[in-house]
Amino acid sequence: MIAPLASLLTHAAGPDRTSTGPGGALPGGALPAGACVDPAADPAADPAADPAARLSADLVAVAAGDRAAFARLFAHFAPRVKAYMLKLGLPTQRAEDLAQDTMLSVWRKASLYDPAKAEAAAWVFTIARNLRIDVLRRERHPEVSDDELLEHEDDGPRADDLLDCDRRARRLRGALASLTPEQAEVVRLSFFADLAHPAIAERLDVPLGTVKSRLRLAMAKIRKALGDDDR
Amino acid sequence: MTDAQATARPAVLPNHHPSDALLVAYGAGCLGEGLSLAVAVHLAHCPDCRTVLAEVEALGGALLEDLPPAPLETLSLSATLARLDREEAPANPCTAARLRPPRSRTPFPAAPIAAPDPLPVPALPRPLRAYVMSTAGLDGLAWQRLAPGVRRVELLPRTSSGGAAQLLRIAPGTALPHHGHGGLELTMVLSGHFSDELGRYGPGDLAEADGHTRHQPIADSHRDCICLIATDAPLRFTGLMGRLMQPFIGL
């Protein structure tokens, strides 16, 4: 009654909501994927037209219990989260377990996702990161969530100040591609090797200050890409 | 952030922020728990740094998207859905969706990722509440005397890698021993002020000291300075007084 996983995974780059229809094979049926999308959060007329907006819309739909949307998110993210865990040195089965755990968390926490504040990929990344820290280091990752701020709650960027998902995603990709090899290296070691700055400096045999300045320059490019300076 | 931006803000906003590199390390998840806690408390005070963190996490998302997918071999979507069914009341998803109240954009339900707090702790920044039991804020903590004018509450015992986090309560005019750092030391001010060779720090400010920094913090206002101090390696005290105190301070 359920489509074999392999058939879903072959569409990992983005199963077309209208044709492949993994949801059609799911028990219980589901809401139309776009039904729960807040139009203000997704100004693109056709969310299916670009992958980032579609993932974001699917995540919003999952908050309303849409299993077809969850199936699409699973097909897209589970293999990437597994790849992330493998990069961080976890054995295959463990990486696979954590990919599943991450997706279960995505299901449970979907109502906390705010499409105006983050791309779906960024949100899924934070869940995978926290699980990885929990498992690999037996530590917590202390965080502040947006609804528990001490003060100045209105100082952050307003929803309508933010670029829509697909533009943000495109610009992020551009910024990532524009990093120098040295900058990209310290970024990847930070995200994928669980190395703090002194360990990165040691591995690359460069001064600590060089690691920090490369990260600062990399962030300047990301910030410029995500900024609304051209609006 | 430039000085001009900082001074244009109301005085209650922090003036000293984590570096971009530190926020990348926090967002990437490569800081120890104590250091992450210090950064999280700063984030609770600082909308600008929350914006930078959102950028770091967007970068994390872009990196995740770029990874070549590693197909799952043993666990499948159907296995995951079966686990969902086992763990949740097996309601028909369509019914569940209809019964759910309409989804509002803001505010989100105040039931975040962390477990609900067992006790209300009014004066503690929320990231700290998971680490200390107190119903009366900072004053209600079990402060232990450490040295003349210095009291302490341990938040995280030293880990195998040498990291540690504690709250220090430093009486006005008290100077901590002059010290250098084996690794990174973050000092997050919760109340009062302190000064060192690098500047003056007040509530919400985060001071970042690494292997190249040697400093001697002094509590320099009329009230106690309470700060969270997190390290990822033992400090190196340099003065005679400091060497004498190190076994007691345990930083």
TrEMBL record, chain A:
A family per Pfam: Sigma70_r2
Keywords: DNA-binding, Sigma factor, Transcription, Transcription regulation
Limits of the RNA polymerase sigma-70 region domain: 73-140, 175-224
Gene3D superfamilies in alphabetical order: 1.10.1740.10, Winged helix-like DNA-binding domain superfamily/Winged helix DNA-binding domain
Family matches, as CDD domains: Sigma70_r4
Sequence similarity: Belongs to the sigma-70 factor family. ECF subfamily.
Entry keyword Transcription: yes
Keyword Ubl conjugation: no
Organism, as annotated: Azospirillum endophyticum
Descriptive protein name: Sigma-70 family RNA polymerase sigma factor
From TrEMBL, chain B:
SUPFAM superfamilies the UniProt entry points to: RmlC-like cupins
Gene3D superfamilies associated with the record: Anti-sigma factor, zinc-finger domain, Jelly Rolls
Lineage top rank: taxon: Bacteria
Ranges of residues in domain ChrR-like cupin: 139-231
InterPro entries linked to this entry: Anti-sigma_ChrR, Anti_sigma_zinc_sf, ChrR-like_cupin_dom, RmlC-like_jellyroll, RmlC_Cupin_sf
Record's protein name: Cupin domain-containing protein
Top-level taxonomy: Bacteria, Pseudomonadati, Pseudomonadota, Alphaproteobacteria, Rhodospirillales
